[in-house]
Design brief:
Length: 306
């Protein structure tokens, strides 16, 4: 019979696909993680992982075990929550996946406020420019920029958000003026690496017919810092603008994008009270913070170009 410690080691390796990262998460030596997995596989009489130079991947047998391990994890978390029923706060660990724009400029202050109210709660934010696989339990819940159409998922729209072209005022002072969309072709464009756009909702520049990205990154944070350091112009989330007062929106009356955030969860987790409570608090926090940040740049602003 497997015990909870076995499940913890199995889940960590399934999620992180690396002995080193799993060991760091569990505070175990990587070699110990490897021995524990080998012992678990021997006890079950089946291979749970395939090993390669890229890391550890679940076998079919491992994938079948995964939902049972997650169910055990949820049961243990619920038991811990029940044991602390004298306190109404959330506790335990919750992992949230998000695109890095949201993860860098929106989630930190929202999650910090939640944890301030729930001191026994640990929250991990995974900022990756890709879609999260909740079926493999890479995260307890994820924020996406489009609603998935397949899988056993629960999808809730959080809110809309806006994006505009922006540049550093110092960049604009040293380059030709921009009064119409055609003028953009005279400027250095910053954006996503075209073949690394993981969601069509992120193909911002297509609407302007700009097909050359002079400075590209798969990270919104890197793009934002390119723009902040006067390297060129690009599309910026309005909610990120208050963190960089030197940036100026460009042609806000001509070019404006609206996108949406969705809270995505595994359908089975709707039965887990602590995740439901956290999800509701996160939903309300994101809506409130995004309204505050966008309100700070609601315009037209005197500093907007053209």
């Amino acid at each position: 019979m497997m015990d909870w410690d076995d499940m913890r080691v199995f889940l960590a390796l399934a999620r992180m696909e690396s002995l080193g990262r799993a060991g760091q998460h569990l505070r175990l030596d990587p070699a110990t993680v490897g021995r524990r997995i080998a012992r678990l596989e021997e006890g079950l009489g089946r291979r749970l992982f395939t090993r390669s130079h890229q890391g550890y991947a679940l076998t079919d047998e491992g994938a079948r075990l995964l939902p049972h391990a997650v169910a055990a994890e949820n049961t243990m978390a619920a038991a811990a929550q029940e044991a602390g029923a004298g306190s109404t706060g959330l506790s335990g660990q919750i992992r949230v996946g998000a695109p890095d724009g949201c993860a860098n400029y929106l989630l930190p202050q929202v999650v910090a406020a939640i944890c301030e109210e729930n001191p026994a709660l640990d929250v991990q934010i995974i900022a990756l420019p890709r879609v999260f696989n909740l079926s493999r339990r890479e995260a307890d819940m994820a924020i996406g920029v489009s609603a998935p159409q397949t899988g056993r998922l629960s999808v809730q729209k959080i809110c809309d958000y806006r994006l505009h072209l922006a540049a550093a005022s110092s960049y604009l002072d040293q380059h030709p003026p921009i009064t119409k969309a055609e003028d953009l072709r005279q400027h250095r464009i910053i954006g996503y690496i075209p073949d690394m756009i993981f969601d069509s909702e992120l193909d911002y520049l297509a609407e302007l017919g700009l097909d050359r990205v002079a400075l590209g990154s798969n990270s919104v944070a890197v793009q934002f810092n390119f723009i902040r350091h006067a390297a060129g112009l690009g599309v910026v989330h309005d909610f990120a603008l208050p963190s960089a007062p030197g940036l100026v929106r460009i042609l806000p009356q001509v070019f404006s994008l609206k996108r949406s955030f969705y809270l995505i969860r595994h359908l089975d987790d709707r039965r887990v009270s602590r995740l439901n409570r956290f999800a509701e608090t996160l939903y309300r926090g994101i809506r409130k913070e995004l309204a505050r940040l966008e309100g700070a740049v609601d315009g037209p602003l005197p500093s907007d170009a053209a």
